[in-house]
Structures are given as C-alpha cells and as structure tokens.
Design a protein that fits this description.
The N and C termini of chain A lie far apart (72 Å). Chain A is globular. Chain A has helices spanning 26-32, 34-40, 52-57, 66-77, 88-98, 107-122, 126-142, 154-172, 201-214, 224-228, 232-238, 246-254, 265-269, 286-294, 317-323, 334-337, 370-394; strands at 176-178, 189-193, 218-222, 242-243, 258-261, 298-304, 314-315, 329-330, 350-353. Chain A is of the alpha/beta class. Chain B has a domain at 3-178 and 204-230 and 283-298: NAD(P)-binding Rossmann-like Domain (Rossmann fold, 3-Layer(aba) Sandwich).
C-alpha cells in the first residue's frame, strides 16, 4: 500500500519513525529497553530472570528474525529448558503486549499486585490485618455483631464514625483539649457542655476528643427531633446517643456510662451570632436531678470555637414552622453559596473540662428539692460561662 | 389439692401447648380449655369446652367447675378475619370473661396475656420501658389499642376483686418455630423492605420461654404487671442480615403504600402499626421480671432469634460458615497448611 502514496507526509516518509514497516524505529527500540534492542540484533541473550511460565503459555506468532522464531517455537512446544527458553521471554514481552491482548495479566501478577497493595494499605503485618478486616466485613454482612440496649454499635462508631471525625477535629478545627484528667476514668459521670454552632458539630467534636483523650465513649443525650429524623436518628443511636429524658439519663448513669448533655438545647445551638458565648437557660435542671439521683459527678465542659463555624445571622421562622424544625439557619454563606455554604468555617477550637462537681454528698430527697436543683444548675452554668470567658481571653484570634 | 385452671384460646398453637404442659404439672389438678373452634390437635388430658368467651355460658363453666385460676390467652394480634372481628374478640371477649370472673367466688388468680405493644412505638420513647411507664404516643388503632383497652378492663377487675391476684404479662415479640405474627411473616419475606434511614431496636422472646413464664405465673401467682423479653436487643438491619435476606430500604411513606399494594396481591406486608414499630422499635426493662416474678428466660433476644432463623429457609445472602475460627487466623491457616 505504501507504494500508492503520492505525498509522503509526516511519519509515513522515512522508515524508522513508526512507518508501519516491520523494523521498529530506533526511538521505539530505545523505549522498549535493552532486551528488545538485543532481540533485533539477534544477539545471544543473558536475561538474569527468564520467566518460564510466560514462555510456556505464549506461543509466538511473529518475530523479526528467523532464529528468534525458531527458538520461540521451541519454547512454545517443548517444556522450557534452560537453554531453549532463554530467548523466548524477550519475544513474549513484545508480542504479548502488541499482538495478544486476550491473554491478560497472569494470575501470579495479580497475586503479587494484590499482596503488595495489601502490604501498602495494612503495613507489615498485612496478612493478619487483612484477615481481621475480612472478618470484620463478614461480621457486618452476617449481622454477627452486638449493640447495647440503646442501639450503640461500638465497632462501627470506632472504625467509621470517629475515624471520619478525627481528621476534622485535628486538621480542620485543630481542637485543643484541656483538663481531660477531670473526666473520671471509670464509673458514671455527666459531662455538661455549652451548645452552639447551628448544627451540633460541637457534640461530635466533644465525642471524638473525649474518646481520644480518655478512651471512653461519650454517650450523648439528644433531642427527640434527632430520633425523629431518618438517617440522623439511625446514626445517632449507632453512635451511642439516646433520648434526653430522665429515664434514659438515669439508666445510662446507673450503668456506669459517661453521658454528655447539652442543656441549652435548641436555644443554645440556634442563637444568633451576636449572642455568641452567652449561655442560655440550662433547661429545667433535669440533668442535675438525674446526676443527684444516681450520685455521679457533673463535669462542666466549655467549648470555644463552635460559635464561629456557621455564624447564624438570620432565621426563617415560617418555613421552620412548616417543616417542624426549631429554626432554618441563614449564615453569610449558607443559602447563598448553596452546598458550599455548608462547609464550616475553620475556627480554632478549645475544649476545657472543668473540675467535677460532686453530687453524692447530697441526701436522699435532694433531687426532689427544686431550690437545691436550681442552685446546682446555676453553679454548673456559672462555671461553664466563666471558663468560656477565660478561654476567649486566651484565644489569640478566631482562626489562629 | 391441686388447682383447677381454665385456659382461653386453647385452639391456637401456643394455647394448646400451654394447656397440655400445664396438665402435666403436679400442682394442677384439672385443666379446662375454652375456645370457639375445636383444637386442631390432641390436647391430652385437657378437658375442652367449645364456647365463646363472649357468651354468658362461660360464667357457668367457671362456677360449675369451681375454677380457681383463669389464664386468658385469646388476646391475639391478628390472624383470621377482619380487623373489626379481631377487635370484637379481643376487647369484648375480655370484657365478658372478666364479668364472668367477677361473679365467681372460687376465683383466686387471673393471668392475662397482654403485649408489649401497649407501649407503642415512637421517636420519643425511652430506650427501655419499665412497667410503670405508659406509651408516649397513645396507640389509636390496631392491636395496640385493643391491648390498651384490655389492660384497662383488667385493672378495673383488679380494683373490684382485690382478693384475686392478677398477673399481667407483657411479652416482647414472640419468636419460634410455629409462631405466626405479622412481624414474623414480615421476616419470612424473600426480600425484606425496611424503612429508609431508621434502624429499630427489637427484642424477642422465645415461645418456649413464654410458655415457661406463663406456667410460672399460673402456679406462682404473683400479683402485678411484668415485661417479658430476652436480654439484649437486635437492630432491624442486624436481624435481616442474620436471616441472610436482602433488605430493600424504602422511604417510610412508601412502606405503607407498598404494604397496601402487596396486601392486594395477597402477600403479607407490614401494616401501619408494624411500620411504626419497624422505624422506632421498642425495648423492655426486665428487671421486675427477674426480681418480683422470679422468672429467668433461657434465651436472650439474640439466641431466640437465631433459633427462629434456623427454622426459616435461608436467604440468598447467606454466607457459608467460616471454616477456621477468626481469632489467630494467620497461625491457624499456616498450621492447617502444614498438617
């Protein structure tokens, strides 16, 4: 066909530049490496690692020199002997790549790739880790795992939820935890925290921080709206949350759990940006009576930084009423930038756990004494508020 | 002298088994079974009276046989007939039975099978219901409403006859080889539609355990209301996975209408009541069962459900059993290769 060409254009002109002639160009030879270069010159081979398996499975179809064809044919027909098969692999390298794509990648290569990938992902002891991971997968698929009576799934919380939140806490908000030694290492305790940030991100970050600094799981008490919402409610239960009611709080505390409560509720989380770090009313003090009845210490917790993640500048009360939610937030970015507005601002966070307030010294009927409950509630609230002011003074800037 | 026990609802599988078992109890002299239809199988030494508990004839049976213990088992979730006839049977039947009991001077004990359905199922539920708690959202229809009304009548009876010890049992969902209920029919579906974005906590009670608890309550005669459930909870997704069945997450709204469509096609499908239960589930506190009733179930929720799972046809996603134990997998595999 080449003789029909009238105007030799581009690479069709001279041999050696991918002209379709039988001999590859010098450029192609150099690309194919030293072994291919040797093949064309029919030089006796000295390949350090001849792959007999490849040679045996690959009957060569075409070769540039007679000698190579003969040797390759021998290699294909007979059992690969040391001398006969030596030249064959180099033929294969080219021909299998160019002429026979259906042959695919040999199984041993797949295995090797898989092994190295596993070693890459799971480290040195990859066999053990991989077996563990497969066992984990199997447990999840067959449902062979345990949840506690609140629906808490420790395995999925540790492996997925906390693992996903940890980089956000460490890299995005750069959470700094202080006073983690104030969290009891065992037995029931009630962590009481301020609430802010439009979306309860502060609760999630406190959960991660508590788990990473003490190894205990913080069991949050959530509003019933949380459990009414699909997906959110499911994840909340799996992460260890339960409904914020006296029955559940007391039950968890009696069971020796570390329970987290945000008594400000929606009033705290949905307050406008202008009222940041000003604590709202601490509910009706139900958390104090629960702690008193079970005699567990109250650990005040102050979170600085969450107020700035979604600065709430407006609300759409009518839409909120329509949807049955407490508020529809408007932030400087949220409806304006669409989903991008959902990215929280990277404020610098400080979480401080204060000295525990003991409740076991009160006598029997103390939990039913409204005045006493009110006083203790106020004491906790004041502690959190004062700590917030102190932390704000120490913070150099919002994003530093 | 042994007790004379009248058992209602003996023609159901559970009722028949309970009556047979009770008749072999040394503390029991005679067992009289009552139902509107004859029992399908042999009842052994149990005397069967074909009567409707809504008929005054039941009063004559109680008085004539000098019955001292009545076990009321015929409050049932669904079964045959339409909703209104089931309600008629559950509520009016209980009312008439209690009226007959009230006039019987020989009566000393009353054991009523209620259900954990009285607690309803909602997002505002506490994790675990104790016997003193009431439903957060009062059930307004269905079986739960029946049970609520039945319990109301039983409480009224207990007030009027303080000399009778009244035991009310609220079992969690019963599971077992022969047990049939809307929930178990749902689990028997080849592909299980689940409410999207919800994962209810479920508790189960093995039917054998329930029979033991009934026997315990009948012979022991402890006054009060008791939750009955196996320990621990299973989530809905966990239960479906353990059956090896694929689940199909469906928006909650659609689950009801899908149920309607399936019902038209004659396939058992979740009712509205069941749909709510599948969203939020329910947990029962069984502390009083242990402390006061003195009953200890043999099965946990998990093992009771496993027994049930073994009796249904395995789902398409069932994995083969693992050959080697998971712990120390590498070592086991290595030594297995050598040996």
């Amino acid at each position: 066909m080449a003789d029909a060409e009238v105007i030799p254009l581009g690479t069709r002109g001279r041999p050696g530049r991918g002209s379709g002639s039988r001999n590859p160009s010098s450029a192609a030879r150099s690309l194919a490496g030293p072994s291919a270069a040797r093949r064309t010159s029919a030089e006796p081979p000295s390949d350090p690692k001849p792959e007999h398996a490849d040679a045996a499975t690959e009957p060569t179809t075409e070769a540039s020199t007679e000698a190579a064809t003969e040797q390759a044919a021998q290699a294909g027909q007979t059992e690969p002997r040391e001398d006969a098969g030596t030249d064959a692999p180099r033929v294969d390298v080219r021909e299998s790549g160019a002429g026979a794509p259906g042959d695919g990648i040999p199984v041993s290569d797949w295995l090797a790739a898989f092994t190295s990938a596993a070693a890459e992902v799971f480290g040195d002891r990859y066999e053990q880790r991989l077996a563990e991971f497969l066992a984990f997968l199997r447990r999840r698929v067959t449902g062979d795992y345990a949840v506690d009576e609140y629906g808490f799934d420790a395995e999925v919380t540790e492996r997925f939820l906390l693992a996903a939140l940890r980089p956000i806490a460490q890299k995005w908000f750069r959470v700094e935890v202080r006073g983690a030694e104030n969290i009891p290492t065992d037995g029931g305790a009630l962590v009481v925290s301020n609430h802010s940030g439009t979306i309860p991100v502060d609760g999630l970050m406190t959960m991660v921080s508590v788990h990473d600094s003490t190894g205990r799981h913080l069991r949050p008490l959530g509003a019933d709206l949380v459990f009414k919402m699909p997906v959110v409610g499911e994840i909340a239960r799996k992460a260890g949350a339960t409904l914020a009611c006296n029955e559940d709080a007391e039950r968890m505390l009696r069971g020796g759990e570390l329970v987290g409560v945000w008594p400000e509720g929606f009033k705290g989380i949905g307050k406008p940006y202008s009222e940041r770090y000003r604590l709202q009313r601490f509910g009706r003090g139900g958390f104090v009576s629960a702690a008193m009845r079970t005699g567990v210490p109250i650990v005040p917790c102050s979170v600085v930084g969450a107020e700035e993640i979604y600065p709430l500048v407006g609300n759409v009360p009518s839409l909120a009423r329509l949807l049955g939610v407490p508020y529809i937030p408007i932030t400087p970015f949220f409806p304006l930038l669409g989903p991008l507005g959902l990215v929280p601002l990277p404020s610098k966070w400080l979480i401080e756990f204060g000295e525990p307030i003991r409740t076991d010294s009160y006598d029997e009927g103390a939990a039913d004494d409204p005045m006493l409950v009110f006083n203790v509630t106020d004491q906790v609230r004041e502690t959190v508020q004062q700590t917030l002011y102190t932390l704000l003074m120490q913070r150099r800037s919002v994003f530093a | 002298m042994g007790r004379v026990v009248l058992v209602t609802g003996v023609s159901s599988d559970l009722g028949g088994r309970f009556a047979r078992r009770l008749s072999s109890d040394p503390a029991v002299e005679r067992v009289i079974g009552v139902d509107v239809v004859p029992p399908p199988g042999d009842l052994g030494s149990v005397a069967f009276v074909r009567a409707d508990i809504r008929n005054p004839v039941i009063a004559k049976v109680i008085a004539g046989q000098e019955v001292d213990t009545v076990v009321h088992l015929s409050v049932r979730p669904g079964g045959t007939g339409g909703r209104s006839s089931v309600k008629e049977h559950n509520v009016i039947g209980t009312m008439q039975l209690l009226a007959a009991c009230q006039k019987a001077p020989s009566l000393e004990r009353l054991v009523v099978r209620s259900s954990a359905a009285v607690y309803g199922s909602s997002s505002r539920d506490p994790a675990m219901f104790t016997e003193d708690m009431a439903a957060k959202r009062m059930p307004r229809s269905g079986f739960a409403k029946d049970v609520l009304e039945v319990e109301g009548y039983v409480r009224g009876f207990a007030r009027r006859r303080p000399d009778v010890s009244v035991t009310m049992l609220r079992p969690a969902n019963l599971v077992g080889r022969r047990e049939r209920s809307p929930l178990l029919d749902y689990f028997r579906l080849p592909v299980v539609p689940t409410p999207l974005g919800f994962d209810a906590r479920l508790q189960f009670l093995d039917e054998e355990d329930f029979l033991s608890a009934l026997g315990h309550a009948t012979v022991g005669g402890v006054h009060g209301t008791f939750n009955l459930a196996g320990d621990g909870v299973l989530t809905l997704s966990q239960a479906v996975r353990r059956l090896g069945r694929p689940s199909l997450p469906v928006p909650t709204m659609a689950l009801g209408s899908l149920g309607g469509v399936l019902k038209q096609a004659g396939v058992p499908a979740p009712s509205r009541e069941l749909t709510e239960f599948l969203c939020f589930g329910r947990g029962l506190d069984t502390d009083r069962m242990r402390r006061v009733l003195g009953f200890e179930p043999r099965h946990t929720s998990e093992s009771a459900f496993a027994e049930f799972a073994a009796t249904v046809t395995p789902g398409v996603l069932t994995l083969p059993r693992p050959v080697t134990p998971v712990a120390g997998t590498v070592g086991t595999v290595g030594s297995g290769g050598h040996g």
